[in-house]
User: Which sequence fits this backbone?
């Protein structure tokens, strides 16, 4: 037979007690580490987001096409994203 919390009383380390469990505060954007994202990577992430928002979740076999599209200029990439937004 195993002991239960009722046999030993309340847990002194429970939530609300010193040293207990607690929720973490949301991160402060001002204290985030500054790690610049390469423009090509930013376009790739934006394209993934636009495809997903348009109801076209990228498949693993789409990776090569997404990589090639991300290598194109920012203007072409924004045009493709605009096309995807109009599909909604």
Assistant:
């Amino acid at each position: 037979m195993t002991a239960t919390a009722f046999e030993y009383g309340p847990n002194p380390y429970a939530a609300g007690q010193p040293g207990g469990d607690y929720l973490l505060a949301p991160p402060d954007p001002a204290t985030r580490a500054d790690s610049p994202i390469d423009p090509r990577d930013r376009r790739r992430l934006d394209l993934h987001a636009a495809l997903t928002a348009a109801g076209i979740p990228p498949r693993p076999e789409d990776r090569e096409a997404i990589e090639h599209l991300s290598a194109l200029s920012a203007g072409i990439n924004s045009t493709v994203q605009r096309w995807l937004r109009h599909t909604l």
